[in-house]
Design goal:
alpha+beta; Alpha-D-Glucose-1,6-Bisphosphate, Chain A, domain 4; two-stranded antiparallel sheet; about 160 residues; 3 helices
């Protein structure tokens, strides 16, 4: 898919079922500061405001920083965001109740690779592979937690 200024956008969709209630999965996902525990390359996430996060990541040995604005957030349903600076990307994660202790989590991510290394990695399927592994680590992480504290439960439209 080609987006503004002739840049190629990489799109990824990954789904995983987790053995926790939908509220628990959602609460964990909105604890952005914990993302480095299960997302490869994420060094630090800071929640600046209810709707703004600051990220420090490493891709192919290159450190990048960017801000992301939460554009939509509905407790136990979805969180959507878009970058406002730095790395160009947007995404949404949705939560679907499959049963009292079973939730389907779906991540949709669109990014614009920067530079030769990221473009090559994207063409080799590394973005999709990393997203799949991040979702698997999220599953292992959340299923190993005895109790997940409440995340941000406000509604952003």
């Amino acid at each position: 898919m080609v987006v503004g200024y002739g840049l190629m956008m990489s799109e990824v969709i990954e789904t995983i079922d987790v053995a926790v209630p939908v509220r628990t999965a959602y609460n964990q996902w909105t604890r952005f500061e914990e993302f480095p525990r299960f997302m490869e390359g994420v060094e630090e996430v800071t929640q600046v405001t209810d709707a703004l996060t600051h990220w420090r990541i490493t891709i192919g040995g290159v450190e990048r920083e960017f801000d992301a604005k939460i554009t939509e957030q509905h407790p136990d349903e979805r969180v959507a965001w878009t970058s406002t600076s730095g790395t160009d990307h947007a995404g949404v994660v949705t939560f679907h109740r499959l049963g009292p202790d079973q939730t389907r989590v779906t991540l949709q991510l669109a990014t614009v690779p920067e530079g030769f290394v990221e473009t090559l990695g994207d063409k080799l399927g590394l973005v999709k592979h990393r997203a799949k592994q991040d979702m698997e680590r999220f599953k292992a992480y959340i299923e190993s937690q005895p109790v997940v504290d409440e995340g941000y439960r406000g509604d952003i439209s």
